[in-house]
């Protein structure tokens, strides 16, 4: 089995609603997204001879996915007062609402599915919230 990895980081703020402790306050992370794709086979012949896929394509897609969240305040939909949210948006702040609690685990599953939707045979997605803490999402069956 061949495993290829590509990673990209983004800087964003978030908070955990209904969390008892400092993480319920708005705070920032340098999030790192590490995507691993797998294949039993290599391409034979042509430009991609001896490769699973071109690293350039994988890197481009991981970067595009991560960059969307860069320098934003990421909010779980429904966890900020409507008036507060509207004022932040009106004042030009980049707010991204997500449908899940913005934990490393949920982001790992979310990015896994995003990459699958782009057609990659994803082995694992890992999201680092801090340099020493990360969560991974993977499926055990091979497509
Ligand atoms: N399993 C998870 N636990 C926590 C998550 C998470 O996504 N998954 N997230 C948080 C918070 O977002 C928090 O920012 C991380 O907290 P912490 O580990 O305390 O990070 P610090 O770098 O601030 O740690 P210090 O050792 O206090 O500097 C919480 N838990
Ligand atoms: Zn956090």
From TrEMBL:
Required cofactor(s): Zn(2+)
GO molecular function: 6-carboxytetrahydropterin synthase activity; metal ion binding
EC number per UniProt: 4.-.-.-
Annotated GO biological process: tRNA queuosine(34) biosynthetic process
Cited PANTHER family: 6-CARBOXY-5,6,7,8-TETRAHYDROPTERIN SYNTHASE (PTHR12589:SF8), PYRUVOYL TETRAHYDROBIOPTERIN SYNTHASE (PTHR12589)
NCBIfam families with a match to the protein in the record: queuosine_QueD
Family: Belongs to the PTPS family. QueD subfamily.
Name of this protein: 6-carboxy-5,6,7,8-tetrahydropterin synthase
């Amino acid at each position: 089995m061949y495993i290829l990895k590509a990673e990209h980081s983004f800087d964003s703020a978030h908070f955990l609603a209904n969390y008892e402790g400092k993480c319920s306050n708005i705070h920032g992370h340098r999030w790192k997204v590490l995507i691993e794709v797998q294949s039993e086979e290599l391409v034979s012949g042509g430009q991609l001879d001896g490769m699973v896929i071109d690293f350039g394509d994988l890197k481009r897609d991981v970067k595009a996915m991560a960059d969307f969240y860069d320098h934003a305040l990421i909010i779980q939909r429904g966890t900020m007062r409507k008036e507060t949210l509207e004022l932040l948006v009106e004042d030009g702040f980049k707010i991204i609402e997500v449908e899940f609690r913005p934990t490393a685990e949920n982001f790992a599953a979310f990015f896994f599915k995003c990459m699958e939707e782009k057609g990659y045979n994803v082995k694992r997605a890992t999201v680092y919230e801090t340099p020493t803490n990360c969560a991974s999402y993977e499926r055990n069956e091979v497509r």
